[in-house]
Design goal:
Number of domains: 2
CATH topology of the largest domain: Dihydrodipicolinate Reductase, domain 2
Radius of gyration: 24 Å
CATH class of the largest domain: Alpha Beta
Distance between the termini: 41 Å
Bound molecules: 6-O-phosphono-beta-D-glucopyranose
CATH architecture of the largest domain: 2-Layer Sandwich
Low-confidence stretches: 486-501
Mean pLDDT: 91
Largest sheet: 9 strands, mixed
Number of helices: 14
Number of strands: 17
Length: about 500
């Protein structure tokens, strides 16, 4: 963990007994506690509607939740019992918010806190505007110490709603107080992209239109929508994954070197990339939706058969996009993005395919094919990278074969939320999404939602999306690369046929 300084504070979670707190925030806070970042003065205040819940009930709930995550030490139990508090929010009326404000002050007084507060909105998106408004109206947007507002994704559901939400936030909170979460930015391997690009002199001179043929970014999941039909039916893959997670991977891959490793420099480079992307045409986007199929030998239902999904739903569970960046570095280099649920396996990869050598020296040898060098950065699972290169096959006739150089992390990675919460508490905004960035990315994608409304092609669960995705790529004279697992990363290249099986 980096050596960051965390001052004593109160961590207020709106939605304090929800799924996000249970699965992500609590384990992340517990790890920070174990690493010595949270001392005995700092407290956690859960705010929720849960009927009958009080301090004692919340402390037990937190201990049980941590035990489920395999974190059941005596120290953590003592921490929950001495530093956790609960305040009910009832129906979210003004008097309920007054209750929250009063409770915050009481806890701060009793524990000698100086007024540093993180206000975390672990709430459904519809609850963001009323909550921000009530917190602001009560004056909870400032305190004697620092106050930071943390907002979960999705931030808006299109350009208009994102603009409105940003305006509302800025009514009460400065941008410097606002931490928009995209948990992909907390992933160690996503940050490693920056280290890889700007900590090595080897690749950066090649990272441009002179040397790179195309870039493919894949975020594939084998899971379906699980029990989230209520949310997913109103979201779809473009809002759920592309506008945020894939766009972060895209901008980090394409951006210029920042002037410094700090929030302002990095975020402004990312915004510049988004502003240089050409408008996406209808022919550059394909939507898909999973039909029944087989994954890992198991029969799974289609999206429309999932509980809570409309029988005629056209919501997309797969998106493939081609982005063109009109700047000096990337003019003419397509960036292909794809994401989907119920694909053959879970993998997040960035594949950078370099151009072929300018002269084909070996053309006089029959069947001596030269493959382009491919750099594959695997963000999960099996985090690391592979670089393919051509070598001569031993013996005669003269032939080339492709081999990979591998690097794999073998250490345990910090949880993404652990990294992000530490940064919230330390006041470092580098890994959080700026208002301008949200707006620039919605500006890019909103037309897809409202102007083209692409029809979702069905694909059987367990395939790499609908067939048309591969046909379109073929029309560009390229193939989607197999997102190889570390064990099968030998080839670096793959045929269309392999992809479709
Ligand atoms: C979430 C999406 O933001 O990211 C989910 O809402 C998706 O639909 C998840 O499954 C993927 O995150 P990860 O960290 O498992 O790649």
């Amino acid at each position: 963990m980096p050596a960051k300084k965390v001052e004593p504070h109160l961590f207020v979670v709106m939605g304090g007994t929800g799924d996000l707190m249970h699965r992500k925030l609590l384990p992340a806070l517990a790890r920070l506690r174990e690493a010595g970042y949270l001392n005995n003065h700092s407290g956690v205040l859960g705010v929720a509607r849960t009927p009958g819940m009080d301090d004692a009930g919340f402390r037990k709930w937190a201990c049980d939740a941590l035990a489920e995550e395999g974190m059941a030490s005596e120290q953590l139990r003592t921490w929950c019992e001495t530093s956790f508090y609960f305040e009910p929010i009832g129906h979210g009326d003004v008097k309920d918010y007054h209750g929250v404000a009063k409770r915050i002050e009481e806890i701060e007084k009793a524990t000698n806190l100086s007024g540093n507060r993180a206000l975390y909105l672990a709430l459904p998106p519809a609850a963001f505007p009323p909550t921000i408004t009530e917190l602001g109206k009560l004056g909870l947007n400032k305190s004697k110490g620092w106050t930071r507002l943390v907002i979960e994704k999705p931030f808006g559901r299109d350009l208009q709603s994102a603009l409105e939400l940003n305006a509302l936030v800025h009514n009460y909170f400065d941008e410097s107080q606002t931490y928009r979460i995209d948990h992909y930015l907390g992933k160690e391997t996503v940050q490693n992209l920056l280290a890889f690009r700007f900590g090595n002199a080897l690749f950066e001179p090649l990272w441009n239109r002179d040397r790179i043929d195309n870039v493919q970014i894949t975020v594939a999941e084998d899971l379906g929508i699980e029990k989230r039909a209520g949310y997913y039916e109103t979201a779809g893959a473009l809002r759920d994954m592309v506008q945020n997670h894939l766009t972060q991977l895209f901008t980090l891959t394409a951006m210029e070197a920042p002037a410094a490793f700090d929030a302002d420099s990095i975020r402004s480079e990312k915004v510049k990339v988004l502003r240089s992307v050409m408008p996406i045409g209808p022919e550059d986007v394909i939507f898909g939706q999973y039909a029944p199929g087989t994954i890992n030998g198991k029969q799974v239902p289609g999206y429309r058969q999932e509980p809570g999904v409309a029988k005629e739903s056209h919501v997309e569970t797969f998106v493939a996009l081609k982005l063109a960046i009109a700047n000096w570095r990337w003019q003419g280099v397509p960036f292909y993005l794809r994401t989907g649920k119920r694909l053959p396996r879970r993998v997040t990869q960035i594949a950078v395919t370099f151009k072929l050598p300018p002269v084909s020296l070996f053309r006089s040898f029959d069947s001596c094919l030269v493959h382009p060098n491919v750099l594959i950065i695997t963000l999960q699972p099996d985090e690391g990278f592979d670089l393919s290169f051509e070598v001569k096959s031993p013996g005669s006739p003269f032939q080339l074969e492709t081999h990979n150089m591998h690097f794999r992390y073998d250490s345990v990675m910090p949880l993404a939320y652990q990294t992000l919460l530490l940064d919230v508490l330390a006041g470092d905004q580098t890994l959080f999404v700026h208002a301008d960035e949200v707006e620039a990315s919605w500006r890019l994608y909103s037309p897809l939602l409202y102007e083209y409304c692409p029809l979702a092609h069905q694909y059987p669960a367990g395939m790499w999306g609908p067939g048309i995705v591969h046909t379109r790529m073929g029309q560009d004279g390229r193939n989607w690369l197999v997102p190889a697992s570390s064990k099968s990363a030998e080839s670096g290249n793959a045929s269309l046929k392999e992809l479709s099986t």
